[in-house]
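**Entry details**
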Amino acid sequence: MIWRDGTLPEDAPPFDALLSHDLLSYGYTLLEHGLELSDLDGPAEPSRRAFENAATAIESVIARGEATPARGFHRVVAAAAFHLARFSARAYSLLTATRNDQDISPTERCLVLLMLRDLDGLARLVSRSRADDQVADARLAEQLRSAINPTDRGEDLNEAIDVLDVVDAALTDAFMGAISVAMLAFERGEQGLITEATSRLQVGMRGAGSLSMVPQWWCHRLAIHLMRGLWESSFHVVLPTAPGGGDAGDWDRLRATFIASLFRRGRSEIDLWPSQLEAASRVLDTQDNLVLSLPTSAGKTRIAELCILATLAEGKRVVFITPLRALSAQTEAALERTFVPLGKTISSLYGTTGVSEVDESILRERDIVVSTPEKLDFALRNDPDLLNDVGLIVLDEGHMIGTNEREVRYEVQIQRLLRRPDAATRRIICLSAILPEGDEVEDFVGWLT
């Protein structure tokens, strides 16, 4: 709070010269206690608070402190602690300043890319590192022999070699190998590969600890927890192989293709955010109506996509209602990106009033139809049977149900859907960034579900 470019102003209080050291010691000790509690499967909240307070302490030293060689390492650790505490935004703010930092080690850069979910960048880093002839086993063994017995040094090794430098290179290479195995696990969805990657990291962590190689020890320790958290929130774990324990239908094929297509995106998407996990536990029960209230950019659309996936697996179609034309076009593009790779068709109904034969054909034949309430109302007035094989209706921007003319039309359309004789055969999901508190939201949920 007081430092400016690593120095204290003249009128600053007389802080102890060891204040930074004490803060770092406190932060790292608290972080270690949080990791130990997590390893023992202790309660989550004390661990989360330990991670948060550890990150805050470490960040306070590096935010405006001296530009020491260890500053990049401390920043990576603070970001990891924030990440483990589920403060991803604070972690990201630290990582953006660290991503291109040339002073951080390859293992530290791995942690940065893993937290940023830049799996393509992580794969490139691992490939470059493992392809380096300097870390080949034979080369490392030769360097180690030369460091231990300087008289055996060959012509190409005529400079003094530090044993710890050789060990550091070997640990880094083994770390990259473990990350490579973990990447394969996230691609294939195999728990055994994650176990193998964790086992390799634990071996490296013990080796680093026995030689007091502190940065390496922390990188291995944090990598184990970051990978474990990523795996536990990954689609492979969160999405079961058969929804509801019943007939899987086309679920297994769609699930596998869905996960693979997200993994292959420019920025791989392989896990659910903390804000999505509670809702995700209910998306596969296609008889369960949901009202989902999350802030903008907190992941409502991904929950809707999972609900759509479960409905498509049952051979039924989906109608996605958006109250605004511009939002309909945006939603159509987002759904195309996700579901076209799965072989599904998406079209939208919005624009002029009235309904044409083309509109009815779209509503009758497409797997997913995006529509405004007015367009859907016109179509259903002409042919109420258009929804007979629709298994899910998604209501976007549910907070836009109110007293003005457009809001009332949206509410009336929903009311008509709820009063259809076949309403019980159709799931309804309502998405909203803003919902009232207390009795009002309870009344809204009760009316809709």
